[in-house]
Write a structure and sequence with these properties.
Blueprint: H1 3-9, E1 14-18, H2 25-42, E2 48-52, H3 58-65, E3 71-74, H4 91-96, E4 101-104, H5 107-112, H6 117-129, E5 133-138, H7 142-146, H8 150-161, E6 171-175, H9 189-208, H10 213-222, E7 224-228, H11 236-240, E8 247-250, H12 257-265
Parallel strand pairs: 1-2, 1-8, 2-3, 3-4, 4-5, 5-6, 6-7, 7-8
Bound molecules: 2-phosphoglycolic acid.
Length: about 270
């Protein structure tokens, strides 16, 4: 890519907070209000912000951030739009609740709920059909990294998890090494850059199928590829300003408004 191209095609960073199974009403609302207030007082800070609270808080958090420019997302969706699936929530319901994003295939869903690439692909497709942006998560375990399988694992997960019809406007990829999630450990910047470059290349190949490599590459350049796994205010600048890193999926540090905001500012 030419330097001039970068100016026009590099997407704005997306800083996404994955609250996981944290937050009762009072804490969640205080956090959301603090972030909304920061956005309102700052104006356009140059990044896009997203919060993904637990299902139980979506309605109230949606109201608290309404009009602030912060987007609302969910941490999962079911692959069907309705029916006999006790305990599940569909993309149609999320859309109805004001969500614009749904995380799919997070490693905790893949491990705790035995979600395969095929399930993740169906969930991403369900999100797309409801007009939601699917944040498709991929990443290797510690054992896979130790055995040198990082690139092949990520390649396989991307091939199996991205649905037909995926595009830069309806899909975000989150690279989250499983061993880095919640551990305080992160890959070195060179390793993050290597995986993100691979992700963009694989996305270009997949999205170019039947349309030509040029179209695939254009879509891939415009697609946001987030890094996730122990992002905090101290390491955000070196990880999030790497080539091919277009923001972060933040777990623990997204539960504190000041830390989450600092991470966002360091993504620029
Ligand atoms: P962490 O979680 O920031 O707490 O490591 C990231 C994630 O699982 O999305």
């Amino acid at each position: 890519m030419q330097a001039g191209d970068t100016m026009t095609v590099t997407p704005r960073p997306l800083i996404a907070g994955n609250w996981k199974m944290n937050g009762l009403r009072e804490d969640g609302l205080a956090l959301a209000r603090a972030l909304a207030e920061r956005v309102r007082s700052t104006g356009d800070a140059g990044f896009d912000m997203l919060v993904c609270p637990p299902f139980t808080l979506l309605a109230e958090i949606g109201l608290a951030i309404d009009g602030s420019g912060i987007a609302l997302g969910a941490q999962d969706c079911h692959q069907e739009q309705q029916g006999a699936h006790t305990g599940d929530v569909s993309a149609a319901m999320l859309n109805d609740m004001g969500c614009r994003y749904a995380i799919v295939g997070h490693s905790e869903r893949r491990s705790d709920h035995a979600e395969t690439d095929a399930v993740v692909e169906s969930k991403a497709g369900a999100a797309h059909r409801q007009g939601l942006v699917a944040i498709v998560c991929v990443g290797e375990t510690g054992d896979e990294r130790d055995s040198g399988a990082t690139l092949s694992v990520v390649t396989r997960q991307l091939a199996g998890s991205l649905p037909d019809g995926a595009s830069a406007s309806n899909t975000v990829i989150a690279y989250e090494p499983v061993w880095a999630i919640g551990t305080g450990r992160t890959p070195c910047p060179d390793d993050v850059a290597e995986v993100h470059a691979l992700v963009r290349d694989r996305v270009a190949a997949k999205l170019g199928l039947g349309k030509g490599r040029g179209e695939g590459e254009a879509q891939a350049r415009a697609m946001r590829i987030l890094y996730g796994g122990s992002v905090n205010p101290s390491n955000a600048a070196e990880l999030l300003t790497l080539d091919d890193v277009n923001g972060a999926l933040v777990g623990g540090a997204s539960l504190k408004a000041d830390d989450f905001w600092s991470i966002a500012e360091r993504s620029l």
